[in-house]
Amino acid sequence: MEEAPDPDFQRDLLSLVDASLDALDVDDLLVNLLARVRSILDADTAAVLMVAEGTDYLVARAACGLEEEVRQGVRIPIGKGFAGSIAATGRPLLLDRIDSTTVHNPILWEKGIQVMLGVPLLRGDEVVGVLHVGRLENRTFTGADTQLLEVVAARVSAAAQVRQQAIETAAARLLERSLQPAALPRIPELEFAARYVPAEGSAVGGDWYDAFLSPDGQLWLVTGDVAGHGLNAAVIMGRMKSALRSFTLVEDDPAQVLTLTDRKLQHFEAGGMVTIVCATLRPPYDEIRISSAGHLPPVLMTPGQPADLAPIAVGTPLGVRATQPRVTTRHEFPRGSELVLYTDGLVERRSEPLEEGLMRLRNAMIDAHPEAVCQHLMHHLVAGSPLQDDTALLVVRRP
Questions:
Q1: Which of 65, 157, 195, 341 is deepest in the core (most CB within 10 A)?
Q2: Sorting pLDDT into bands at 50, 70 and 90, what band is 284?
Q3: Using an 8 Å Cβ cutoff, are 261 and 318 in contact?
C-alpha cells in the first residue's frame, strides 16, 4: 500500500512555488523565498550565495536572519568550507558541527549556528550558487527539508538566469548604441551617410561603424564585426573601436593600425575574434587606401564603371594568428566615386549563398547622395525581412 502524501509537505511546497511570486523582481523574490523557507524549516538563517563570474568565489547575494553576510560582502572560495564544498561537488550537504574547521564564514559560528543544510543552485549541470539554512538549536534537518530546499534552489536559479539575461541584453544594447558615432565628419569635399540597425529579438551582436579625422587630417572609415553575441561581444566591440582610434594617433597606414589592434586583442581579449575593414583618405581625397582583416570587401563605384567589390587583399581576422603581413591596397577615388563599407547583416541570408547577397548589393548601388544610397540599399536588401544579424552601413562619396 502506497504511503499517503504528507499534507504539510504539500502545503509547504505550494507556498514555495506560488505563482504570485513570478511578478516580483529577483531581489524581492529572493527575500520573499528566504523568509518563507526560513519559516517552513524553522530555521534561524537562510542565505543565497552566487558564483562571481570569472572567479572561483561565492559571493553572498541575499540573506534572511543573518543579513551581515550580505552587508559584509562575504566571499567563500569554491572548495573551501561548507558552502564552498557544495559548490565544488554540486551535491546537498548536512553539517552538524559549525566551527572554523568546517565553515569558512566566521559569522555563522560566531552567532552560534549549530546545524546547517545547503543545496547547490544549478543551471543545467553548472553550479551557479549555493542556498543554505541554519539553526541555533542543535536539531538536524530531514530528507524532506532537503527536498524543499532543492525546490527553492531551482526557483532561485531560474529567476537569476532570467534577470541576468535581461540585464546583459539591456546593457549590450545601450553599449552598442552609445558606441556608434554621434555625428559623421563634416568635410566640404566629401559626403557621408550611415545606418546602424540591431538584429530583431534578444540577440546582441558586436557590429559597428566609425568615421573620424586623426590630428594630421587623415579621414578614417571603419566597419567591424565581433564574433558572437551578447554583452561580451558588445564590450569587445567597444574596446576594439577605442584601440583602433588610439593606434591611428601613432600610425597612418591602415594595415599597421590593424596589426597593432590585433596585438591588443590577442593579449588582452584572448579567444576573441573580430573582422574589420579600414579605409583612409587624405586631401584632396583622390586616393583611398584600404586594409581588411577578414571582413567583407567594400563596394567601390567610380564614374563610368559598374559598382564592384574593391579588389583588396583580405588578411586574417583579428584574434587569429596571421601567417602573412597585413597589406594596404590603394585605389583611385576620382570625383563622382562612392565607397560603401558594411557588415554581413546587410547581405548574408541563411537560405542562400553569400555570393548572391553580394551580387544583390552591387546591383542595388546608385549614383546619388550617400543618404539616398543608404535608403536605397536598406530598402532593396533588407526590405521587410526581419534582421537576423546587426547591420552597419557606411557610405562616403566624393561629389
A1: 341
A2: very high
A3: yes
- Quote the mean pLDDT of the chain: 86
* Residue 387 in grid coordinates: 534582421
Alpha helices in the chain (DSSP H): 7-16, 26-40, 68-71, 81-89, 106-110, 143-178, 231-247, 254-268, 354-364, 370-381
Q: What is the mean pLDDT of residues 34-60?
A: 88
Residue 248 zone, left/alpha/beta (φ > 0; ψ -120 to 50; rest): alpha
Q: How far apart are CA 209 and CA 221, in angstroms?
A: 8
Which of 2-11, 169-178, 197-206 is the least confident region? 2-11
Range in 114-118, 270-274, 349-353 with the lowest mean pLDDT = 349-353
Could you report the per-residue pLDDT of 173-198, keeping only the tens digit for each? 665 566 677 789 999 999 999 998 88
Q: What is the pTM of this model?
A: 0.69
Contacting residues for 300 by C-beta, under 8 A, at least 6 apart:
288, 307, 308, 309, 310, 331, 337, 338, 339, 340
- How far from the centroid of its chain's Cα atoms is residue 43's Cα? 39
* DSSP assignments along 327-346, one per residue: --EEEE--TTEEEEEE-GGG
* Nearest-angstrom CA–CA distance, 44 and 117: 12
Q: Which amino acid is at 164?
A: Q
| 3-state SS, one letter per residue, for 162-183 | HHHHHHHHHHHHHHHHHCCCCC
In terms of phi and psi (left: phi > 0; alpha: psi -120 to 50; beta: otherwise), the region of 271 is left
- What is the pLDDT confidence band of residue 18, given thresholds at 50, 70 and 90? very low
Most distant CA pair in the chain, distance: 94
Q: How confident is the model at residue 27 (pLDDT cuts 50, 70, 90)?
A: low
Query: CA-to-CA distance for 264 and 336, rounded, in angstroms?
Result: 37
| Separation between Cα atoms, residue 237 and residue 206, nearest integer Å | 5
Set of cell numbers at residue 8: 504539510
- What is the DSSP secondary structure assignment for residue 116, as one 8-state letter? E
Indicate the residue type of 149: L
Closest to 96 (Cα-Cα) out of 127, 142, 59: 142
Q: Are 286 and 334 in contact (CB under 8 A)?
A: yes
Q: Identify the residue whose cell numbers are 558594411.
A: 342
